[in-house]
Amino acid sequence: MTDATRTPSSAAQGVTQLDVHDRPQKNRALRRFMRHRLAILAVIVLAVIAATSILAPVFAPYPYDKIDLAATAQPPSVAHLFGTDRVGRDILTRTLYGGQVSLLVGMGATAIATLIGTVIGALSGYYRGWVDTVLMRITDTVMTFPSIVIMLTLAALLPRSVWNIVLIIGLLSWPGVARLVRAQFMSLRESEFVMAARCLGVPDRRIIVVHIFPNVLAPMIALITFSVGGAILTEAGLSFLGLGVAPPTPSWGNMLEAARNLDILKNLTWTWFPPAAMTVLTVLCVNFVGDGIRDAIDPRLVL
Q1: Confidence check: pLDDT of 15 > 50
Q2: CA pair distance 201, 126, nearest whole angstrom
Q3: How far apart are CA 172 and CA 237, in angstroms?
Q4: For the chain, is the Cβ count within 10 Å smaller at the N or the C terminus?
């Protein structure tokens, strides 16, 4: 049998052996992540926050929009564990329901940004040439826009709703993902397993999705994790300025809007402290998880 006739078989082995060598690496990354105590604690705290937010109708003692004029601006008590606001709405209830909105915005906006950035970065990094030039110039143009100004403008022009906030944040947050994916694809497209797949006549679409993308997923996860925290903070900022989710639907951001009043800031601390604490705790935990993932997938870092 000649070398020429053995080439396709060897190429096929090269493609199939990728998963064999990649599996121990994934196991080592998982073990390194499990040794990251802060990241594990953060995962547990985030799970509790997500569970209580999703199950808010079960845990909340009152409807989030129930107004009790006989119990306005009441401090924490047995009847209202976190107190009430100026119109008698229960702060604990609104904090739990607010978690639903804030987490939805964080996850939804990140999903949109990841989808757009992944498609643009993959096409740009794999095909290069004029495709790379066009897509990267579009990316550079979007990155030069003052995103916060555009977000404020769009939030002021569009109806105030959760989904509009998700779209606004997501559609302006993808360039970082695109650049990361592009860099990874450009370095992997010349790898031996990709060349072997080309020799076997594997279509470009399958090479991009099946052979290259799984190897890009690990560094993407760390960036995606940090993006969730950034989206939550962005929603909180827009709502604090009165341009986010419209009341009476609660979010941690529009609950903090009350803190703009100096009297409330000083004398009704319980109305804004719970959503502020939950925002800080959630973003801090998300960042700890991101640090743990980054340390786990980076072979240069040893825990």
Answers
A1: no
A2: 16
A3: 15
A4: N
